[in-house]
Amino acid sequence: TLSSWEAQTLEIIRLIEQDLIEAQSQLEYLAAARESLEGALRIYRKRIGSQYGRAVQSIRPKEFEGKSIREMLRMIAERNDKVIVVKDTVKLLKEVNVFGNPLHADSIVYSTLGRSREFIKVGRGIYRLNGLPKDDKTSKERIPGLKREVLELKTVNPDMTKQDVRDTLIKRGFDFKGKSPSRCVHILWVNLGYAKQDKEAQRSLFGER
Which H or E element spans position 175? Predict the structure, then answer.
């Protein structure tokens, strides 16, 4: 005869084994459900990519001239039901030689989308134009707006000088709110550490000579 302790132990073992069987059944169900959902996700992503490809093909390379990365992304989204698919966008922008260094293309696009108030992330590698105004007209936001533009220009083309950046912003029609473009860019240039980099580059150049 089993002692009371042995009987209790056997009952506990039986219950644990039963729980394990039920857990295994649940895991198999979840695995099948996951496989089904992943399959559906692949189908819908493929549909988005196909539609996206047709939309962006209507954009001519000349339409990108003089525009910032953010403006290009907005243009692409407006042609594609307000949707940006990063993978296809990067491919398109590489084809029209937008990036100074194509190896940085993905990080530039993701960084621009992440910083912009215009886009919200709706899925992995998918963003949607959210309808917010593309330019904040308040005085408070003017400097951050300028900072984004300067950072973007330097990221795309690290060799740009302060004068290059200023001239590009003027050409694009950036609103300096009546302030001196040279002074605004100079202040940011110093704050962002580019002035220090320029001095170090000059010292290095003279040292090599």
Answer: none
